[in-house]
Structures
1.
Amino acid sequence: MTTGDRATEAPALVASTEPPAAAGAGALRVEGVSFRYRRDAWALRDVDLTFAPGELTAIIGNNGSGKSTLMKLLVGLLKPTQGRVLVDGVDTRGARVSALARRVGFIFQNPNDQLFANTVAEEIAFGLRNLGLAADEVAARLEATLAQFQLQDLRDVFPRFLARGDKQKVCIASIVAMRPRILLLDEPTTGQDHRDSQAILELAARLNAEGITILLVTHDLINVAAYSRRTIVLRDGLVVRDGTTAAVMSDADLLAACSLAPPQIVRLAARVADLGLPLALSVDQMVAQTRGWLARRGAAT
Amino acid sequence: MAAAPLVALAGVRYRYPTSRDWVLRGIDLVVERGEYVGLVGTTGAGKSTLCLTLNGLIPHYTGGVMEGEVRVDGQDTRGLSVADLSATVGLVFQDADAQLTMSTVEEECLLAPLSQGASRREARARAHTVLAELDALHLCERAPQTLSGGQKQRVAITAVLTAEPAMLVLDEATSELDALSVQRLFALCDRLNAERGTTILLVSHEMELLARHARRLLLLSEGRIVLDGPPRAVLGELDAFRRAGVRLPQVAEFADRTRDLLPWREPPLDEAEAEAVLREAAGSGSTSGA
């Protein structure tokens, strides 16, 4: 039995492999997409992916695997060389980036690449005005967003003076205010400490629970294991795996071939699989599995 | 007379010119030659500032107010230039762009040995050896500005290592490296420390690797060193880590949360040690060692 098989045997802790059918707002389809920058080598080749509304999916891969290119294709900043990308059924080849921005929000890796306004409130209001909303609607959404992200006390602060974690929060707030159904987060935890990383991912999980489709590009596998149910692995422009996070994390050879390594707790679980301990993706799961394992052993003796 | 410690900080306080708050609030720290130290703390704890005091960028270039004393090789850094200090303390920044200035990777890596008086041939030999160790030899002819974040970090590390400093300080120099490159970098530090006696100070969020590789861990919180000792002793102080907002290695967290269930005698430093305890529990058939 492979470790991948074990992963599917822990139904209480590992989510279903089957995403819900793609329909309605918040769906993304990548159909036969290849992309190259001018005459360079292909950055992406023959990619077929579907993201159903409400999914939280991680996209992992080493530097140069094509993660960033895929993100840019999904928000329309790049158009496919071959194939097509559909955002809620809209073909990105014929759509303006500003029009797509209503549907899909992109959070930059470095908040300083995104923040430009003089106050937090202005940063959030800017995108809303760009949508052509009436002044009272802009004001109402601004207040609602400040409250949703608990930014009321920082509304008049110059965003670039904020702590890194708060900057990221303002970036996400300014995008979420535009009510996209899809949110793309590009390496949101790189350069962040544990506390800020947790805050950002908890926020992403909460938005996902509210129905927003989330794509998380990262090389932080501890957080991938803890937060996402589905993981896509890119290597040299190809999708080399699209499956449950449990199955991906169990495949140490696949990860090594992509210069990645499973989190320590996954490695521990793999080492003691022969004792009858099911796979764990996070410390929380490992603690729960250990309790269950000891209880079963106690009952058996 | 015993040689002076490689680095000695006494009562060091520092604040930047633009701030009223002290970033370092009384640091006493001695690092002897050949030590292998990991430094952890949240963003804003003062880790980078502490690193900058070691090669003299604080106070020589930053302005601000520094109190107390930093001695490198027995000499007060106030009386040494950054150039003098760079031969002893090699610092790799978190942001590689701040460090890379030359038109090609090779030129970048020749800079330090040439300025130390090495022949071009010797300098090239040194540079190529380190580039090969970091899997970056193929980048020799590239312009540093055209490299990816991870590649830039590897080149910045190489450029510092070619100076063969007595102490290597890596300030979160792994943030953009993939897992394999990070492991390779830790292995290189191990080798430099074991074979050349290079003193290592690694600032990193890679808790699992620090626990295994470093022989001493420092936890910095709000400008103060709150824990200082061998990894196993330091990782036993879970409350201090939680207060400081720093993540524990996953197996140490697991051990703490199962301490009433499994026969832990000390915090595990890696998955092999945790595995041994789980096997012990399986073998004994008992549910608790407590």
Note: The longest strand of chain B covers residues 7-15.
2.
Amino acid sequence: MPPLVRLLAKRLGTSLIVLIGVSLLIFAIARVIPGDPARIALGPNATADAVAMLRERLHLNDNFITQYAYFLGDLFRGDLGISLYTNRPVTTDIVQFLPATMELVIVSGLMMVALGLPLGVLSARYRGTWIDHIIRLVTLLGVSAPGFVWAVILMLVFAYYIRIFPIAGRISDIYAIQTVTGFLMLDTLIAGNFKAFGNAAWHIVLPAFALALSGIGQAARLVRSNMVETYDKPYIEMAEAYGFPAKRIANRYAFRPSLIPSLTIIGLDFAAMLGNAFLVEAVYAWPGLSRYGVAVILRKDLNAIVGTVLIISAMFLIVNIIVDLMVSIINPRIRLSQRAS
Amino acid sequence: MKTLAILTRNPLSLIGLILVASVVLSALLADFITPFPQHVGSVVDFTNFNKPPKWPNIFGTDLVGRDLFTRVIYAYRISLILGVVVLALAVPVGVAIGLLAGYLGGWTEYLLMRLTDVFLSIPPLVLAMSMMGLLAPTLTNGMIAVTVMWWPWYTRLVYNIARSEKEEGYVLAAEVIGASRTHIMFREILPNCIPSIVTKMTLDFGFVILIASSLSFLGLGVQPPTPDLGSMVAEGAKYLPDSWWLTVFPGVAILVAVFGFNLIGDALREILGVDQ
């Protein structure tokens, strides 16, 4: 087996074990809460009979193991149960709200890589100079505030005072785009409506940037510290002695080996955005998983909470596997050993 | 003490020290330095509601006329208490599990690290949110929720160090002379983890404040009338852009505190020679 396939199989296997662990953990938390979920769902005016019936339907009268077995059985059939908040299958709800969140997180992730890496390289190349000091200060500020604080500040400055970006939402009301993927930037392209695409892209800039800021800071700081370490290596000294241009040394010899340790952490940051998106979505009235997630949490809607957490964790694990694969592809020790076999 | 002296020499970490010291001191002395200490609770003063910053209300007043500066300072007090309690609970647990997994290896390592992975694969905010929602949103439960999501990071940190340290000569020497496992873990390996742990704790103090404010921003944290920076921002965001002071001051207050801890943590990392 080529090393890459073996790695993928191993990571998938571990992830599955971890995912079962997550389901057990969140299921356990959801079952030890005080209060009767059936009573909460039906409200204080429901009859005792109705509550008893719902308890029976949700298997709440069985012991924990049996309940979990029912849950796992449903899960393998792709059934996460009915949300007591929307009265629809939890999977339907998630399919409706997840794309908006994913779109936001993906654009943010791209911003993180596109801005964070070059800032880190610049900072390391000019280490000890004022360029380095300014970048370090700005990136540290970036990681020092939660997404919602940046969201509010950016909104105030770039949507209210300088009116260059829209205040909230995903797209202007005048565009009616048929939902295909749920990703508006894809759906507008599928519909061939470039004006609508531009409008959607314009709407996503501020929320995505607010979400990306701490990731940009984190990525830049990581790349900088890894690169500064690499700069001490003899082969860089040799390249400098040969008189290679500083730019080439920075971008090729110092940056590449520094990317590998940075990438793993950047993957973790990207995954953390799935959680932090909740904060930004709330400020920009972004119709993603956030409003649904907070609503179901406040209503103690057990099925929906367990489903949402499980889906988000699965995304998290998938992102990490992708990052691991990318690391192995970039890392010549793994890539070349594959070629040899 | 020597570390402290070095910290004051570097301009950036000096700024960090000043920021953190002013946050901590103002929180400790809140009863004496705030102009309206009675505004912590559910006081209303409708003649003065929603006023822009103007002496004596240097941060303005909120929607029921309470002094915003007073409430921000008292919110610092709660954030700091939360930070201390969370780290006091999460660090010993995380460190102990990390040492066990890293030094003992084998099945212990496999089980403990998979358990850690489970906690690490739920995005931190989502785990804390679900716990807060399912428990009642109180300060104590907030501490529990944040602690539950925090310990695995220390486990991972200490696990990695312990795994490389156990190959070192001094550990082998201790094993050869028949030192107990407990002695090796806590007396030989642990001291070598301390610089990393201290650095991480300094940085994390800021991040605990950040996460706690995020929870209350979503309505899943400390409940009113207790002053909290996150819920102040959430409440004020409805009145943008006219009543900007309702969100900007509490928001910047979070930034100042976290930034201060980050500056010190960064400097410590360099002084103590800790990897990221």
Note: The two ends of chain A are 8 Å apart (CA to CA).
